[in-house]
Amino acid sequence: MLRQEVATQALELPAARPGLGFAGTVAAYVSLTKPRIISLLLVTTLPAMIVANGGMPSYGLVLATLVGGALAAAGANAINCYLDRDIDELMARTRERPLPAGAIEPEQALIFGVTLGIVAFALLATWANALAALLAMAALAFYVLVYTVWLKRSSPQNIVIGGAAGAIPPLVGWAAVTGGLGWSAFLLFAIIFLWTPPHFWALALRYRGDYARAGVPMLPVVAGERETNRQIVLYSFVLVATSLVFAPVAHTGWLYVGSALALGGGFIWLALRQWAWPTSRTARSLFLYSLAYLGLLFVAMGVDGLIF
Q1: Which stretch of DSSP H or E encloses residue 228?
Q2: What is the distance between the alpha carbons of residues 41 and 46, in angstroms, rounded to a whole number?
Q3: Could you give the percent of the chain with pLDDT greater than 70?
Q4: Taken in order 264, 269, 273, 275, is the CA torsion positive or negative?
Q5: What pLDDT is attached to residue 19?
Q6: Within a domain: 62
Q7: Is 213 exposed, middle or buried (0-12, 13-18, 19+ CB in 10 A)?
Q8: CB neighbourhood size of 195 (10 A)
Q9: What is residue 245's predicted lDDT score, i.e. its pLDDT?
């Protein structure tokens, strides 16, 4: 059985809120945007742009797309923090976030998130194209309305369906370069869509008690550890297969194929280990590896696109 662990937010805010100060206030607003999540989204956007362009696009377009995408994701995360502040207060893993900790007023967080979304749309529509801007706003709306408002509190499939929001950034990058979408772009979407459940369930296994206390029906809470581990294995096999299908469709070189095989083999091994010998340590290893897997897979994709 997994042992429940207590983790704290990497960014700790001062306890006294009225005298937070400028630096503390800035840190609190930055924390609202969940910068670690944004960095992973950007890692999936740039390689998509390189593959779509057949090489490095113009630096101006890359900068506009990455900044616009980052602002859209930041806005979505800030609104998510506003809507989930009651849940965050109940969970040991999240109770030190700015809103439950009282660092920022909820209405200010909402205004901040909406403003970031508006700026992101304007930037992408002006310096990229309308399709890229609309896709970024679709990701924001899906994450806020479909995942946060609807699915998160009502269905164990919350992260499966809601994870589609995090799979849109490569589409934004592809659309910014080509003005359209294609099969290769949709496969990039599918890779992240299939990666999200095993990645997040590995985390949810470790914090099952947190989610149960907050009344969030994550799969480990509703279906138990064994079924969750079985689903992780199934998704891992389909994920790796999809990453390999991308190679002939996008005409990648050997660097991407070799990386997809090696990284995918590691992912499947850790998923099988989690299924056969479930512990808190194996769940943590799978979660951390899943982060490295996605980042390295897309880095290999981008480098491959520059070489071949």
Answers
A1: helix 225-250
A2: 9
A3: 94
A4: positive
A5: 61
A6: yes
A7: middle
A8: 26
A9: 98
Residue 187 near residue 250 (C-beta atoms within 8 A): yes
Element (H, E) at 158: helix 158-162
Q: For the chain, which ranges sit under pLDDT 50?
A: 1-16
DSSP 12: P
Provide the residue range defining the domain that includes 280: 182-308
Q: Which two tokens stand for residue 191?
A: 């890779």
Distance from the Cα of residue 167 to its chain's centroid: 8
Token digits of residue 257? 């194929």
Burial class (CB in 10 A: 0-12, 13-18, 19+), 180: exposed
* Cα–Cα distance measured from residue 154 to residue 215, given in angstroms and rounded to the nearest whole number: 9
**Residue 167 forms part of a structural domain:** yes
Indicate whether 157 and 187 sit together in one domain: no
**Pairs from 299-304 (Cβ < 8 Å, separation ≥ 24):** 299/43, 299/47, 300/255, 300/256, 300/259, 300/260, 300/263, 301/47, 301/50, 301/51, 301/252, 301/256, 301/259, 302/46, 302/47, 302/50, 302/51, 303/255, 304/252, 304/253, 304/255, 304/256, 304/259
CA distance 86 to 294: 31
- 292 and 146 assigned to the same domain: no
Please give the structure tokens belonging to residue 73: 């994701």
